[in-house]
Structures are given as structure tokens and as C-alpha cells.
User: What shape does this take?
Amino acid sequence: MKKSILSFAFISLFLVSCNSTNSGKTQSEKTTDTTNVMEQKDYIQADTYDTGDGQIKITLVGHGSLMLEYKGKIIHIDPYSKVADYSRLPKADIVLLTHEHADHLDTMAINTIKKENTYFLMSQVCRDILGYGDVIKNGESNDKTGILPLIKAVPAYNIVNKKPDGEAYHPKGRGNGYVLPLDNFTIYVAGDTENIPEMDNLGKIDVAFLPKNLPYTMSDDMFIDAVKKVKATYIYPYHFSEFDQTKIGNALQDSVTELLLRPMSNL
Assistant: This one.
């Protein structure tokens, strides 16, 4: 059984992964794209995966923010201006918002990357704040983008971590995670969540993004459990301020999952 790989280097306050070579990949084969995405130029490293129906380029922009390029179209997820210069990134054909917190719903970043015809999909609370966009709820699917075959909204919530008043930082049903099935390749963006039971039933996941920071999302032990639940080929830890690579790497040494660390800011 292949062991979990933690590639890392310290640069300033952030963890950056080194390139790794993997054999025997088919649909989930990953390469590091040094040309990067369209107008992105040399700004932020992208990883390229074979979906079985063309390639997808995935960029962890920072914190909880992602950018995908698929069939020449750009998908931004939770753009956040405090972790990247969005004027240096391509405009969005689709914007997905997981929930309403300021590090996930940032109007400055949104206004920088939106176009006249950008398609927005989000939770109900995000729609209430922005005043535009389509709403998707946990358990629902959307096939209206004309770009992605399907977008599935899945639960993202806290069970343990709560505010002093007893309310969960992320109540169940309020925010979304997203599952993006692309032919024989599936991406899971967990959003702000703990290691919830629904992670056991996501199906085959090739690439997953899982958060790890207290008190808002997961502890080290919760994160380790979430990795084991999701069973993705590649997992990007995100939304973290520190990462205990020794503890987590040792706990996952018999896992078939490869952990890929990227910077949490590109400013």
C-alpha cells in the first residue's frame, strides 16, 4: 500500500509543497503546471489533472480560496482579497461561495474577478447578502452552468466547535461544501466543516480540499479522521495557520492519500 506523502518547505510563515513524482496514475494523474493559468502568468502555481475528458488546472489561491480552469473556463471558489492580488488572476466564468463569513464572501475580490455574464452559485445566506446569484442547498445539484457537468452541494458544519453562546461556528444546513464530478474525476471542496458523518458517503473522490484550524473547523485529530473518511487520491489541507506535518504524516503513513501543502497566502 502506498504511503501518504507530506512534501513541505518553510517559506516565511507559510508551508509550500515541493514537486513530487507519482507513477501508475490514470484519470487522477497530476502534473505541476509551470506555465500557469491564462492571465495568471507566473503568479501562483497550478496543478494539472487528467479528468478523462480533458485536463483541469487547480490553483489553491490561499486560505479557503481556489481557482479551477476547465475547458478554457475559469471557476473561482470563495475568492478572498487578503490572500492574493485578484487583479492578476483571470476573470470568473463561475463563482461558487460556500458561506457568508468575510473570508469566504469578499465583495472586493468578487468585484475584481466578475464579468457581465459570470454565473454565481451560493448558499441562501450569501444570496441574501449579495442580492444576486442562484441558490443551492445541501443535497441539491445544479447543472445550469454550461461549463461543469454538475455541481453538488453537500453539508459543511460544526458538531463540536461552538461560540461562547453555544451556537456552532457553522450551523448545519447554513453553508455548503461542493462536489464537482467531471467524467471520471471528482473534486470535493469541503468548505468550513468538521469531520462530519456525511464525508463517509461522498463516493469516489480524486482531489479534496479539507480545512484545519481551531476553533472554526478541524483539529489535527479531526483532520486525520476526515482524510480517512474521504479517501481521496490527493488532499490539499487548506484554511490553516499551522500544520503539524510530523503528527499528521505519521498518522496517515499507511494511507493511499497524498497530502499536498500549498501557501495560505500569495500576497
Remarks:
- Confidence is low (pLDDT under 50) at residues 1-5, 7-27, 33-38.
- DSSP finds four helices and 18 strands in the chain.
